[in-house]
């Protein structure tokens, strides 16, 4: 940058991305842009510059990185957003820009938890009939077609924006974005007589309120395991880790000199 600050591109869409933008904005050494996919109508706009919409694949992102003289990309997207993470790895490799990922650690079952690991949403769907009849589905608004064939089950789907069809025949939608409390989640599970919960392993510093509520009520939980980050991309667990990583020189995932995207 002309003022000597380093341009950091945060790939956003998570609470951690917003917190990171806030923290970096207080440091004159950095200029921050947060990028959003543009899927949510009402964005919680972070501090710093914002861009919205896809880059047009890895080549498009590489072009953006060059044009805006980005020195570091921090992939702070949701751990299940695999396409943008893969694109970032390829764009960073093509441009020589440093890349690392900010990912909240995954959740771990504790005493009293009845968790059933699933490889993906389709696997989660196959496990449900043996576990319950009234399902609290909290995996987001996309990919619910995986559950669409389960006509015998009742689904309470909670998402920030309306889920995309096809949906299961017996679906009730609850639009909400949290934050949630154990008391609130317990009351919700009781009010809807839920007997099984489905969640992605989105992770976080503490166990999510819904998981604690399910454990307290003795309910089984299907936990969809998170995909690994792209090979070679280093991961930090929190904003403090990202700050420490930014302070260290190093190429991150960059492999070789700037070039064209494969
Ligand atoms: P995805 O499948 O990994 O990405 C699909 C495409 O959307 C990407 O190829 C890219 O388009 C564009 N895109 C995604 N994130 C972007 C970003 N931050 N900035 C610019 N373009 C982006 O992503 P997804 O799973 O649909 O998630 C979309 C966004 O929602 C992510 O930013 C993620 O952090 C957030 N989110 C996802 C989940 C989830 O469960 N997947 C949950 C909560 C929040 P181009 O190829 O054109 O660049």
Structural description of this entry:
- This protein is of the alpha/beta class and 262 residues long.
- Helices cover 26% and strands 23% of the residues.
- It folds into two domains: 6-105 and 227-246, 3-Layer(aba) Sandwich (Rossmann fold), CATH 3.40.50.720; 114-224, Rossmann fold (3-Layer(aba) Sandwich), CATH 3.40.50.
- It has helices at residues 15-25, 57-67, 82-95, 121-127, 182-191, 209-216, 239-246; strands spanning 6-11, 30-36, 49-52, 70-75, 98-102, 114-118, 134-137, 154-159, 171-175, 196-200, 220-224, 235-236.
- Strand 4 (70-75), helix 3 (82-95) and strand 5 form a beta-alpha-beta unit.
- Helix 2 crosses helix 3 (82-95) and helix 5 (182-191) packs across helix 6 (209-216).
- The longest helix has 14 residues, at 82-95.
- It is elongated.
- The two termini are 27 Å apart.
- The relative contact order is 0.18.
- NADP nicotinamide-adenine-dinucleotide phosphate (NAP) binds next to strand 2, helix 2 and helix 3.
């Amino acid at each position: 940058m002309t003022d000597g600050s380093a341009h950091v591109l945060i790939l956003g869409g998570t609470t951690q991305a917003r917190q990171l933008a806030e923290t970096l904005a207080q440091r004159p050494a950095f200029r921050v842009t947060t990028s959003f996919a543009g899927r949510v109508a009402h964005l919680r706009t972070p501090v710093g510059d914002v861009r919205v919409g896809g880059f047009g694949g890895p080549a498009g992102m590489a072009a953006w990185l060059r044009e805006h003289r980005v020195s570091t990309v921090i992939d702070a997207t949701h751990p299940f957003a695999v396409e943008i993470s893969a694109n970032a790895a390829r764009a960073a490799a093509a441009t020589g820009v440093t890349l690392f990922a900010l990912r909240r650690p995954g959740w771990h079952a504790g005493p009293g938890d009845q968790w059933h690991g699933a490889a993906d949403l389709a696997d989660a769907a196959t496990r449900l009939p043996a576990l319950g009849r009234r399902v609290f589905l909290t995996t987001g608004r996309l990919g619910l077609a995986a559950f669409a064939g389960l006509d015998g089950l009742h689904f309470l789907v909670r998402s920030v924006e309306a889920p995309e069809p096809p949906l299961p025949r017996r679906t009730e939608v609850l639009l909400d974005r949290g934050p949630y409390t154990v008391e609130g989640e317990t009351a919700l599970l009781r009010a809807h007589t839920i007997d099984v919960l489905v969640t992605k392993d989105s992770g976080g510093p503490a166990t999510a309120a819904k998981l604690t509520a399910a454990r307290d009520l003795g309910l089984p939980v299907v936990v969809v395991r998170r995909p690994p980050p792209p090979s070679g991309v280093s991961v930090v667990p929190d904003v403090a880790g990202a700050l420490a990583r930014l302070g260290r020189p190093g190429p991150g995932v960059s492999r070789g000199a700037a070039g064209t995207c494969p």
